[in-house]
Design brief:
This protein has about 775 residues and is mainly β. It is about 10% helix and about 30% strand. It is built from ten helices and 43 strands. A hairpin with a 4-residue loop joins strand 34 and strand 35. The longest helix is centred in the N-terminal third of the chain and has 10 residues. The termini are far apart. GO terms for molecular function: copper ion binding; protein-lysine 6-oxidase activity. Its EC number is 1.4.3.13. It comes from Podarcis lilfordi (Lilford's wall lizard).
């Protein structure tokens, strides 16, 4: 007789338990009819993750006891557990139909692709299945025909891998491993929620307190609190986006519970407190009576009360505003498209640095999320999938217990070994459901990722949909819209949308004067007019956006500027083209062409694209501007600003650089050049490549002819007008200290603007830092 156990849809990452540590979302599936000589079986399907160290995919590292840590939860090597032993599946005769079966068994809607030849690393031990033939409709891989269990002529170089869709089949299964006495169980829950009960919490967003309910068989059921612990509450709060649990008024809930009848779930839960989701918790004892109905004698429905992070705290309750994010944070997320996701950076010795993904898992990632005021981690991401950082790598082999107040309290190593920024760790955190996505929509676009922006606003006491005035509408505002809708980054911001037909009833302008900083969670949080003022009206001039899942991220090499700076006195007769392109100070028009000269502060710019998408000019080459003097096209009229400021922050000299040639000068290993300016070629900077504007080309300078020697601040801003979308604009500014003497110049302490702690950055902060007017 086969025993059926259905394990959780979220793998444990404890290295001490091989069953859980090896796979992403391991799940036991139904046994099939076996020959009489095999009286018992246990079949488990697992996706071995593509970040397995020492198994071939990530190079020469060897960390076998840490196999199966998550890189992306829906891809990896396929392994099955049969007769007490893990084994792989050979790629002979494997098809997309078999991949569909695998993915559905693991809880995903379908397969996207499959990979032969051990793309996700070579497995170990047995090769259980070979020559697998499926039609795609089977309920289990064991139903498909094959050579039989363990009958194979393959080697582990032929282990098959699959990529499943991101979309999961609704519901999750619980780990019922404590219920050994119960056989033939299929404990699956369709959903879970916190249901507000007291009137003070019913209309509050987000919902922070109430009964814990699970949906089973289409019916919402409550959980008896007899075996409920604060550890259970911590896990529930974490999966709903809250960093921790808090006490609640037990007496009030007992009074409320006594007045109502309750439908109870038949099981209790037993969490350790560091799980990322309740599906990873063990099930407690069954609590049903002899009649089969679940009861809760001498108990009541389990209640949780959660602390929201500061950004999600209800404004009317100042008591909720606990400082989960310290005033001077030690951890931050960079480059994420959505709230609560990004590359992890840690502050050490006053400098921000990244975390290497060796041994990176959900437990450590959850500590980061909770420290930042979010819930537990939804995904621990490896392989710099949310962009590479620059500067130092501070941490590797992070090993958190799950209860640390700060990620810096976890055990970790600073011996980096072979770690590079290609292994930067990232995270996606659970965040509270705020409902912001229901307050805005895109209308008329060809795809769900584009369209005219429409907002839901109250007008004369009635909620109404309407448009947003496009006056001064730009990339930053579009970024907020795309983030609010969960559609990633903004690809473009449109000030005319006549080609996107929306409903006539929604053409009224309901929002104008919109100005965002870029950090807002919703467009309504941006500054906007109290009274709508839009002379151009809505209609064809309504604001629009197009969104994209990936974006570029330009970062300047600060040390290159420091190493290449020097002075040049250049004759005026050699600067006529530069004068025409406004690359000189205003006093240059009075300089004699035959005898005069200009003093230039020259330097090189090396601009890296560390993002996930190529950096391309906003305009296509059909609209590039030809400059006859220099004999080239400008794909962006302003690509960089160069500024010198005095110690009070007043700009005393400036320069600018148009992008006459954006191309791939060099690339990291494994990346190919795509853009070359020659012969009117396409311009851009490929991911993993950089563009170099050498110190000896025109306009690669600041004209300091009128400047007196002294101490100054030097600043470069890349993509200053934010014409092109990037995943992170905060690293587009580079700062240096500059000492100018009559015949020489020194640049020192050059760094990216957000590379150091606030205390160190205060040396460079001054009034007028972002003032672009020359005094």
């Amino acid at each position: 007789m086969c025993k059926k156990r259905l394990f959780s849809a979220a793998a444990r990452l404890s290295p001490g338990e091989a069953l859980y540590a090896r796979g992403s979302f391991p799940r036991k599936v139904s046994c099939q009819q076996l020959p009489a000589n095999q009286p018992s079986c246990l079949l488990i399907l697992s996706l071995l993750n593509s970040a397995d160290k020492g198994l071939g995919f990530w190079g020469d590292h060897s960390f076998p006891k840490w196999r199966g840590q998550k890189r992306k939860h829906n891809e990896g090597r396929v392994e099955v557990f049969y007769n007490g032993e893990w084994g792989t599946v050979c790629d002979d005769d494997f098809t997309i139909h078999a991949a569909h079966v695998v993915c559905r068994q693991l809880g995903y809607v379908e397969a996207v692709s499959w990979s032969p030849a051990s793309k996700y690393g070579k497995g170990e031990g047995r090769i259980w299945l070979d020559n697998v033939h499926c039609n795609g409709r089977e309920a289990s891989l064991a139903v498909c025909t094959s050579n039989g269990w363990g009958v194979s002529d393959c080697k582990h170089t032929e282990d098959v891998g699959v990529v499943c869709s991101e979309k999961r089949i609704p519901g999750f299964r619980f780990d019922d491993s404590l219920l050994n006495q119960i056989e033939n169980m299929n404990i699956q829950v369709e959903d879970a929620r916190i249901r507000p009960i007291l009137s003070a919490f019913r209309n509050r967003i987000p919902v922070t307190e109430g009964y814990v309910e699970v949906k089973e068989g289409g019916i919402w059921k409550r959980i008896c609190d007899r075996n409920w612990t604060t550890k259970n509450s911590r896990v529930v709060c974490g999966m709903f986006g809250f960093p921790s649990e808090k006490k609640y008024n037990v007496r009030v809930y007992k009074m409320t519970a006594a007045r109502r009848k309750h439908t109870y779930w038949a099981y209790s839960m037993d969490c350790t407190g560091n799980e990322a989701h309740i599906s990873s918790c063990k099930l407690g004892n069954r609590i049903s009576t002899a009649s089969g109905n679940a009861t809760c004698e001498n108990g009541m429905p389990a209640v949780v009360s959660c602390y929201p992070g500061r950004a999600f705290a209800p404004g009317s309750h100042s008591g909720f505003r606990k400082a989960f994010q310290p005033e001077f944070p030690l951890v931050r997320l960079k480059g994420g498209a959505k709230i609560g996701e990004g590359r992890i950076e840690v502050l050490m010795n006053g400098e921000w640095g990244t975390v290497c993904d060796d041994q990176w898992n959900l437990v450590s990632a959850s500590v980061v999320c909770r420290e930042l005021g979010f819930g537990s981690a939804k995904e621990a991401i490896m392989g710099a999938r949310l962009g590479q950082g620059m500067g130092p790598i501070h941490v590797t082999e992070a090993n958190c217990k799950g209860f640390e107040k700060s990620f810096t309290d976890c055990k970790f190593s600073t011996q980096l070994g072979s770690c590079t920024h290609e292994e930067d760790a990232s995270v996606r955190c659970n965040v509270p459901a705020m409902g912001f996505q229901n307050q805005i929509r895109l209308s008329g676009g060809r795809t769900p990722y584009e369209g005219r922006v429409e907002v839901l606003r109250e007008l004369n006491g009635t909620l109404k949909w309407g448009t947003v005035c496009s006056d001064k509408w730009g990339t930053i505002e579009a970024m907020v819209v795309c983030r609010q809708l969960g559609l990633g980054y903004a690809a473009h911001a449109f000030q005319e949308t006549w080609y996107w037909y929306g409903e006539t009833s929604t053409s009224d302008v309901l929002m104008s004067g919109t100005k965002c900083s870029g950090t807002e969670m919703a467009l309504s949080h941006c500054r906007h007019d109290t009274h709508v003022f839009c002379p151009r009206g809505g209609g064809r001039f309504a604001a629009g956006v197009s969104c994209t899942e990936t974006a570029a991220d330009l970062v300047l090499n600060a040390k290159e500027v420091e190493y290449t700076s020097y002075l040049e006195d250049r004759p005026m007769f050699m600067l006529q083209c530069a004068l025409e392109e406004n690359c000189l100070a205003s006093s240059a028009v009075n300089t004699s062409i035959s005898t005069g000269y200009r003093r230039l502060l020259r330097f090189s710019s090396q601009i890296h694209n560390n993002g996930q998408a190529d950096f391309r000019p906003k305009s296509g080459r059909h609209s590039w501007i030809w400059h006859d003097c220099h004999r080239h096209y400008h794909s962006m009229e302003v690509f960089t600003h160069y500024d010198l400021l005095d110690l009070n922050g007043t700009k005393v000299a400036e320069g600018h650089k148009a992008s006459f040639c954006l191309e791939d000068s060099e690339c990291l290993d494994g990346f190919q050049k795509q853009y070359e300016c020659a012969n009117f070629g396409e311009q851009g900077i490929t991911v993993g490549c950089w563009d170099v504007y050498r110190h000896d080309i025109d306009c690669q300078w600041i004209d300091i002819t009128d400047l007196v020697p002294g101490e100054y601040f030097f600043r470069i801003i890349v993509n200053p007008n934010k014409e092109v979308a990037e995943s992170d604009y905060s690293n587009n500014i580079m700062k240096c200290k500059c000492k100018y003497e009559l015949h020489r110049v020194w640049m020192y302490n050059c760094h990216i603007a957000d590379a150091f702690s606030e205390e160190i950055e205060e040396q460079f902060d001054f009034n007028g830092l972002l003032n672009n007017q020359v005094s």
